[in-house]
Design goal:
Length: 280
């Protein structure tokens, strides 16, 4: 279990945030040493014995920008987490008064921007469309995988598998998502989306996140589904995505895939010394 020398006797501050119900615990390691490992992530992610989250995000100093590190509830790390990036960007913009900033993630350096009206945008970078970059286990057409339903594979710093269906509500997402997360075509596992085209440049989508399970929303999944729909000619490059937790706007532009939506800082709290000591 990770040692947190500066927090053992005074507790550890954290923030709880969400983007459309896709929820996060955020630890700020700028002012104090916080060593996070898989065990701490799993303990904090427990919704009964910890705090509960879809992802844990840690803010730290990088070489040129602040750095974000993400953990899933099973303790595994993720290179990308679009909604968490938007939530933290909003917090930092309110803290500094800036309306645009850059954050370093495993996905690369991402630009975030205040769009006004309580909306925050982040450029999630260019999609990875070649099988080796996603990655897949073998060379193949990423627009039509040899899986029942012919899903589309897309990389957004993490792997995605998007199924376009007639009715997302007719599918048992818990069973469907769990089965496909571990499909042998995806050596690093995959996020799974089931998407239904509901109108011109609009879709309804539900998400299973690798290492997490069913989520109310997912930023990187929304970007992947938008890219997949545009590549198939089902929508244009700008699309509105209706998730279980609300709606996001995604725009695949020449400089990358931009995602825009609301964020919420729910509360700030402190993990007690007793809780931290129980993890050692």
């Amino acid at each position: 279990m990770a040692a947190m020398q500066s927090s053992e006797h005074i507790g550890l501050p954290f923030m709880k945030m969400h983007g459309l119900g896709n929820d996060f615990v955020v630890l700020d390691a700028r002012a104090q040493q916080i060593d996070v490992d898989a065990g701490l992530a799993r303990a904090l992610g427990d919704r009964h014995r910890g705090v509960g989250f879809d992802q844990l995000a840690v803010i730290s100093h990088g070489a040129d920008t602040l750095r974000l590190t993400f953990f899933n509830t099973d303790g595994s790390q993720a290179n990308a987490c679009g909604n968490a990036t938007r939530c933290i960007a909003r917090h930092l913009m309110e803290e500094t008064g800036e309306t645009e900033l850059q954050l370093t993630t495993g996905r690369g350096v991402l630009t975030a921007r205040d769009e006004g009206h309580g909306l925050t945008a982040v450029n999630m970078g260019h999609p990875q469309l070649d099988w080796v970059d996603i990655p897949l286990a073998d060379a193949m057409d990423t627009l039509s995988l040899p899986i029942d339903g012919a899903p589309v594979a897309t990389g957004m710093g993490n792997p995605h598998c998007t199924f376009f269906v007639e009715d997302v509500e007719a599918i048992d997402l818990a069973e469907f998502g769990a089965a496909h997360e571990h499909h042998p075509l995806f050596p690093e596992r995959t996020n799974v989306q089931i998407a239904q085209i509901t109108g011109p440049d609009r879709m309804r989508m539900r998400v299973w996140e690798r290492g997490v399970g069913i989520t109310l929303a997912s930023g990187s999944s929304s970007c992947a589904a938008a890219v997949a729909a545009a590549r198939l000619g089902l929508t244009g490059r700008a699309v509105r995505i209706d998730l279980d937790g609300g709606s996001l706007s995604v725009d695949w532009r020449d400089d990358g895939v931009w995602m825009i939506g609301p964020t919420t800082h729910v509360f700030s709290g402190t993990l007690t010394p007793a809780f931290l000591a129980s993890l050692t």
